[in-house]
Design a protein that fits this description.
145 residues, mainly alpha
């Protein structure tokens, strides 16, 4: 049976990386001059990503616009996987790993701490890509701040 601290650390890393992905999507909207305070966008992920996709559609460079849309799509998919883990009810069936029931989907999730940590790593790598874009690509796009 995995150590409870190992599971908590894996889920914690997952949550931390997810918040950075959300912040980067909000930064994209702020760089476009659509909001004064990007933190306000973090109240609703649905409207955050809708607004970020609207901004991506206005990017004058077609390759950058397509890459930004792809980045947003992958971020959303990773965040949906994060939600499934974080919003599940942990059950103890005496099986190895992390076992939980996700009420919205009705699915039983069975993951190892390594699988949860791997999902967090995927979010971190995607956030790294977004951080690069927010510094070097989104900021330089004509018509932006």
């Amino acid at each position: 049976m995995p150590d409870r601290d190992e599971i908590h650390a894996a889920v914690g890393a997952l949550v931390i990386q997810a918040t950075w992905l959300e912040y980067l999507a909000a930064r994209l909207v702020a760089r476009a001059g659509r909001v004064q305070n990007e933190m306000e966008l973090l109240k609703s992920r649905k409207s955050l990503f809708r607004e970020a996709r609207n901004v991506a559609a206005t990017l004058p460079d077609a390759d950058l616009a397509a890459g930004t849309r792809d980045w947003l799509d992958k971020a959303q998919a990773l965040l949906d996987r994060r939600d499934e883990v974080v919003h599940a009810i942990v059950i103890h069936e005496h099986e190895p790993g992390w076992n939980a029931y996700h009420p919205r989907s009705g699915r039983l999730l069975k993951m190892s701490p390594k699988q949860i940590a791997d999902l967090a790593r995927q979010l971190q790598e995607h956030a790294d890509d977004g951080t690069y874009s927010s510094i070097f690509e989104w900021a330089r796009s004509p018509g932006r701040e």
